[in-house]
Amino acid sequence: MSRGGGFVESLATQTLVIFVIRTAGRPWQSWPGAGLALGVCVCAATGAVIPFTPLAPWLGFTPPPPLFFAILVLMVVTYLGLVEIVKRWFYRRYAGA
């Protein structure tokens, strides 16, 4: 993975995870406020564009290939699914603590 790809993947997973951890319940049953949703999506989208801008060489980024973005979707869905599983385990185990 290129440095630009690593940046995009890291930013996407670490911003989108907010939707999973912001509630003890299922994230798709409790919608975030418009400001949070917009902020997270703008941050992730901006990060995805940076490797394609004139700023990229200054940061040592090279644009990731198109296939990377298809794989990125799978990585993000997998990561968020695992976070949801761990979150449920945590709340079941420590909810009464």
Explain what the structure shows.
There is one protein chain. It contains five helices and no strands. It has 97 residues and is mostly helical. It has one domain (3-94). Helix 1 (3-16) packs parallel to helix 5 (66-94). It starts with a helix and ends with a helix. The relative contact order is 0.20.
Q: Would you count the extended β strands for me?
A: 0
Mean pLDDT: 92
Show unreliable segments: none
With helices defined by DSSP (H or I, 4 residues minimum), what is the helix count? 5
- Approximate strand percentage: under 5%
Molecular shape: elongated
Number of domains: 1
What does the main sheet amount to? none
- Strand and helix order: HHHHH
| Rg, Å, rounded | 16 Å
Span of the ends, CA to CA:
42 Å
Helix proportion range: 55-70%
Structural class: mainly alpha
Task: Provide the fold topology.
Blueprint: H1 3-16, H2 18-21, H3 34-49, H4 56-59, H5 66-94
Helix pairs in contact: 1-3, 1-5
Task: Summarize the structure in short.
The chain has 97 residues and is mainly α. The protein has helices spanning 3-16, 18-21, 34-49, 56-59, 66-94.
Supply the key terms.
97 residues, mainly alpha, 5 helices, 69% helix, 0% strand, elongated
